[in-house]
């Protein structure tokens, strides 16, 4: 395949070169031989021209002369187009010519791309000595001949005028006014930033900074020193760019400065106390900025070191030593939620109702930690913890990632734009960093948001023993095969831009959101043999938003980073040197990555496609099952039925007495402990309690918290009930358990109702059981509690209730179809994604002749699945078709 793809590419390049050569060189030679030179010996006067045009063309001279003029004019236009495209290829931008010649331009562009990739020895494209490195001062310096010297080309080391000045990358929603206010404390300092940034050479495809009102994502700006009253005020270290929606231009006379409008600003260009007006685009964002994955990120001036507002960390470390950001955590969390919903859709309602012991395969440890970290950010922002469905629905409208947070510096996120990003990483921390970056993009690859092309040896380096397919991942044997794949993408995106008359990829996505245009990243290592090919891919890729991550030292015009084992940047050179200097980048172990990839693969297994993806090999933790039993209420020794304390676990955790809810004196940790004890009525050890409730604490800290929770619960319950003697939480030997004489628990009552439903002998008992379950199961278990045990039992209880109601419906449908319909409707209410329950209800309605109800049930399922970005399975579609065509009495 390697030699074949290389041969095809070379043949294509030869054909393109031969075609261009024939048209550019051969055509004028032929026309010269046939008609002579197009340049006349002398300029004819008007009488000669008039006489020539007015005489009859009996000898065909006028016709031939006209053809000659048209031929030479077409040759000139074609040659001009070729020169334009060649210069555009050199400069790395997309040229847009007048519409009449655009079809020819697209043809020429495709041929130039084919020639460039096939013949990488072209000096103007492949000579690294001619490449430029962006320096801190914003001017282009000659790159060193040796790519290793890129590390020594750190711009700040060579330009004394800007020693200590910082560069920052503009993100969507950034304005000079906001950046100045964050950096210097006053937005009025924006002219200084504008003046210092006008001379910066911008990345390929981006215009220079010429207007303070117009900023483009990906542009670079300089944060200079501000001298005030003879004192130099140094610009602080730049923070992560902020991502928000682009600020609109406001109508004249509209005060768009937001809360800061009441302040008086001093124009830094003079010492007069005139208020400075911010640039028109500098409206204050109404919403907090968001990271590339959609999760809010802190403003730098709001953040404590290493934390976001609400004391939420911007990065966290897994027990294995991996350090990841909230972007990867959020993406993995969505993948986990998606996989769970797919399993809920496949589960057969009513099957094996008495043998439901496995609620959910436990996620890999890294995935469980990442999921919890993501949910904790909601609690830190005082927002409700989302359900699985809410995570998936929120993710549905997420845009393709156009930037990525790579790590932190001074406790603040460090992000780079993915548009044409070219990173070379080497050192002990290179592979773990690349693994973290690639895994995050793969987690975001669904719905055509991102695609990675990785060469086989490098895929094995990043993910040892990788098996099965992953959405958004293309593995090629060699870099030549990757180039063959990318060449097709260059041509495809070029044609789309020209057809839509759009200047860049961002504009094209806005023009046609349905067109699949994923963020594309090439991941490969570089050798002397593949160096020229890689440089050509980088040059061409900038025009179409295609970046590269190079394992090793990349070309001179890439950003080259050297990483220590812990992810610390020890040396960096290239366009983003000042942003990455001193940063601590994320890193991921191979073991954690394998667990995350298995979850991502499971999320891609959409039942609606009818073709499930290959299952990953089960790890030891995934192959284990979680054994659940219904929390049956323990029998009271003296037979008493009065319970002074009511513990409600369905919905949010609530504790109440005869006088009403206990709203004070009972800490959250104490409520969680009561819930965990109720889930295990036979008792738990202290070690079990600490592992379940405080898994991220040291054993000593967890023991103290356990003791405090028990003490707090006893004190609050004694105070509110007036009972001073009972312990409420009894200890027998090493076991702690709730006193069954004192607690009435709704979960225990529901468990009793489910047991009675399973033991029902006649339809009257079954009908009563349906009503009892419906009355008791009003909400999910421990809503809002982000614990693994709570998640597991929540899923188990939902499935148990749904299966019990479905089995009762099956038993009732012959003699009591209305009761059966009610049971299925409540099963769907509690599990709105169980397609089996919908199909059962559709079949029952068809038997009863309720054809409108069949259609309404299917429409309800389709609507709910549409919220998740999917649709009913082919099996459900086929059932609807069959039920429409089958008489009621013959419906299955």
TrEMBL record:
Domain of life of the source: Bacteria
Record has Iron-sulfur as a keyword: no
Claim: Protein transport is one of the keywords in the record: no
InterPro entries: AfsR-DnrI-RedD_regulator, BTAD, LysM, LysM_dom_sf, P-loop_NTPase, TPR-like_helical_dom_sf, WH-like_DNA-bd_sf
Domain LysM, residue spans: 166-223
Biased composition (Low complexity): 605-623
Region (Disordered): 135-158, 198-218, 230-317, 604-623, 869-892
TM ranges: 12-34, 72-95, 107-126
Sequence ranges of Pro residues compositional bias: 286-298
Entry keyword set: Membrane, Transmembrane, Transmembrane helix
Protein known as: LysM peptidoglycan-binding domain-containing protein
Species in which this protein is naturally found: Actinomadura physcomitrii
